[in-house]
Write a structure and sequence with these properties.
By secondary structure, this protein is an alpha/beta fold. 44% of the residues lie in helices and 14% in strands.
């Protein structure tokens, strides 16, 4: 047992010896408006065991109507999770841009409670004009936007408004002052298409969350975007996410930069004040 522990501690020095921010994780409900405490504690314990310093959490509505009432309800669930572990968890406010002014007011409410940014799902393409007022509000508030993303190669009609690289490139050029994260480049689908779309749009970042561990996705993402535009995340695949960072054939300096969140760490520091 001691040999196993020593091996683990040696392998995990990248995490234990450096500042680590997990930009993409979730808590969930056990019933509408009720935090699933078991899953919450599992995430916390796993994050502690793997030397995370901060974990950004949201509770997205992935099916059904994302009404203003429901969005407020899931954000309150995130508040409950943060209260349980304020040393670890920071919030990302889930909203539906189609709720218009009510969505913006919900973002402001969450930011006033210390949330770091917002989380969007695929109710709309990110470059749909319906989203413009929400994006402009986030620019004014100086907060990042984490957007569910992908280009599906199987069952593409299952998420008909899933934002791909072309949608992010369009909105990034329209709003160069926005801070936008194209989620889970390692989440499956055509990641090369995703990278090609955003390569030259410098205000579009991505994160390494997702269960895909294809070679050479880590190396190609760093080569095309540079480590400055990549964030560490796990999105429900904690150990796969860690494995990708440990085994990725990129420099130690780039690994440290990704784990620390680079320029995006200012959002963490601002929210903590």
């Amino acid at each position: 047992m001691n040999n196993i522990k020593a091996y683990y501690e040696n392998e995990m020095k990248l995490f234990s010896d450096n500042y680590v921010v997990n930009w993409h994780e979730h808590v969930w409900e056990s019933a509408p408006g009720v935090l699933n405490e078991v899953l919450c504690e599992r995430l916390y314990e796993g994050s502690c065991a793997t030397y995370m310093d901060k974990v950004l959490i949201s509770d997205p509505i992935t099916a059904g109507d994302a009404t203003s009432e429901r969005c407020r309800q899931v954000n309150n669930v995130v508040v409950e999770a943060i209260k349980r572990h304020p040393d670890m968890f920071l919030g990302m406010c889930f909203v539906n841009g189609g709720n218009k002014e009510e969505a913006i007011e919900e973002v402001k409410r969450c930011v006033d409670m210390g949330f770091v940014g917002i989380k969007l799902y695929h109710q709309y393409f990110i470059n749909d004009e319906t989203m413009f007022p929400l994006i402009e509000a986030c620019i004014d508030l100086d907060i990042p936007i984490l957007v569910h993303a992908g280009r599906l190669t199987r069952h593409p009609n299952s998420q008909p408004r899933l934002s791909g690289g072309e949608h992010f490139a369009d909105i990034g050029r329209r709003y160069p002052e926005a801070n936008i994260i194209m989620a889970h480049i390692t989440g499956g689908g055509d990641w090369q298409w995703q990278l090609k779309g955003i390569a030259d749009v410098k205000n579009i970042y991505t994160d390494f969350s997702g269960s895909v561990i294809d070679a050479p996705v880590i190396e190609e993402t760093v080569r095309i975007l540079g480590a400055d535009r990549i964030l560490f995340g796990t999105d429900g695949t904690l150990f796969a996410g860690i494995g990708k960072m440990l085994e990725g054939n990129i420099s130690l300096e780039d690994k440290k930069k990704i784990l620390a969140g680079g320029a995006y760490d200012r959002f963490i520091q601002k929210a903590k004040k």
